[in-house]
Recover the amino acids of this structure.
């Protein structure tokens, strides 16, 4: 077809110029930050829509090739972000509480045996009642005791795991670590709590102490592995809060005063890690575990034009959350994604931090409540030792862990016998009495 026949009308000429301009613009956009990689992405999209397309799996040659790239990149990125490096413990298997939980979880999922672990809702009245048990009928107590007797093997196994001294994921595949059963953690700790409350009801102080120590151990197994993810930490903190609330408001008030050794019970109220230290441990865990599971799978299925640059940007986003400035400045945003990223990969960078500010707010509140319970129990212990709490010397007061962050300190109201946090620093503050 001759050129003059194509452009013989102004309209056709305009359309031809427009088409040519779009082609030129598309070629240029392929190398601009706001459009880089569009042709690659569009081609991959068409490939995925093909009826013959089958997505690669974790055992495919594509994954093996990608994993090889990640393995080569991993030590290099740790040199740039040393805070993300993991130091693994050396824990024997028979002392490893997290490994025992992991094996139990896999066993339960494989056999689909959840029903025996969930407590019947009728026992909620026992689990939630505070400061005595006058409102609990003898019939309900008897039913609860019969339930525990029926599931005594589950209970014994849960206590044994909770009393194991250590936890580690050394040598465990990330694909085993990440699938976390919240149901297992909740159901088992409910079972332990019910057992402890019934032991306290029967004035078995030592037995109740052992059970609550085991419940605390489950929390620490989730929290203190080398790479706790956000899910592990959320479950661990929830169990720890439940444990401390139960000891403070339910167990010790239920026991006869002459059977409560506050010095021993106060050991169960401690949470050794500072907020910043545990936050760093959690972000390090989230990065390490997700990098080798979710992120690798995403790269495999999404086939970005710049996989290593995308890994770099994901790491930069997560590393920014470990910066001390994150807690010192509420508006801390971290570094911007590098210009070399494609448009899609830049979006991935932002998604890595999506929701982290809100999560940090909830984490701060939870950590603050843990500290409030710790202080409340320390004051109860001092009072039981004969101290007048209104006349404590400055050395004793300074030893109480009231400092959460450099600009956040808890307040002790000795007249109202309450411990509070400043509302302008901690959302939805809680008052803990002592």
């Amino acid at each position: 077809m001759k050129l003059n026949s194509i452009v013989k009308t102004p309209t056709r000429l305009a359309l031809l110029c427009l088409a040519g301009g779009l082609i030129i613009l598309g070629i240029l956009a392929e190398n601009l930050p706001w459009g880089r990689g569009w042709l690659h992405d569009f081609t991959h999209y068409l490939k995925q829509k093909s009826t013959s397309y089958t997505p690669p799996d974790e055992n495919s040659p594509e994954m093996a090739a990608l994993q090889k790239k990640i393995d080569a990149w991993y030590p290099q990125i740790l040199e740039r972000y040393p805070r993300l490096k993991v130091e693994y413990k050396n824990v024997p298997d028979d002392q490893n509480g997290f490994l025992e939980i992991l094996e139990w979880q896999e066993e339960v999922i494989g056999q689909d045996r959840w029903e025996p672990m969930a407590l019947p809702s009728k026992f909620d009245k026992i689990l939630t009642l505070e400061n005595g048990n006058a409102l609990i009928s003898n019939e309900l107590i008897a039913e609860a005791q019969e339930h525990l007797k029926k599931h005594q093997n589950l209970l014994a196994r849960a206590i044994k795991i909770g009393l194991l001294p250590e936890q580690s994921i050394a040598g465990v595949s990330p694909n085993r670590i990440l699938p976390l059963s919240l149901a297992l953690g909740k159901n088992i700790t409910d079972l332990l709590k019910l057992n402890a409350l019934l032991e306290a009801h029967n004035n078995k102080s030592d037995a109740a102490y052992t059970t609550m120590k085991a419940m605390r151990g489950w929390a620490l197994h989730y929290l203190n592995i080398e790479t706790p993810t956000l899910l592990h930490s959320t479950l661990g903190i929830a169990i720890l809060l439940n444990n401390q609330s139960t000891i403070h408001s339910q167990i010790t008030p239920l026991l006869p005063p002459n059977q409560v050794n506050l010095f021993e019970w106060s050991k169960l109220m401690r949470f050794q890690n500072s907020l910043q230290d545990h936050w760093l441990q959690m972000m390090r865990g989230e990065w390490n575990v997700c990098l080798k599971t979710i992120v690798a799978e995403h790269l495999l299925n999404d086939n970005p034009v710049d996989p290593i640059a995308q890994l770099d940007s994901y790491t930069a986003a997560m590393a920014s959350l470990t910066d001390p400035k994150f807690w010192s400045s509420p508006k801390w945003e971290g570094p911007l994604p590098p210009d070399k990223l494609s448009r899609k990969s830049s979006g991935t960078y932002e998604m890595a931090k999506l929701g982290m500010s809100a999560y940090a707010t909830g984490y701060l509140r939870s950590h603050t409540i843990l500290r409030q319970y710790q202080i409340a129990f320390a004051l109860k212990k001092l009072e039981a030792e004969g101290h007048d709490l209104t006349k404590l010397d400055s050395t004793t007061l300074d030893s109480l862990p009231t400092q959460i962050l450099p600009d956040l300190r808890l307040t002790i109201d000795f007249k109202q016998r309450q411990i509070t946090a400043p509302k302008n620093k901690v959302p939805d503050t809680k008052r803990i009495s002592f």
Observations:
- Residues 108 and 114 are 7 Å apart (CA to CA).
- Strands lie at 403-405, 408-409, 411-413, 418-420, 432-433.
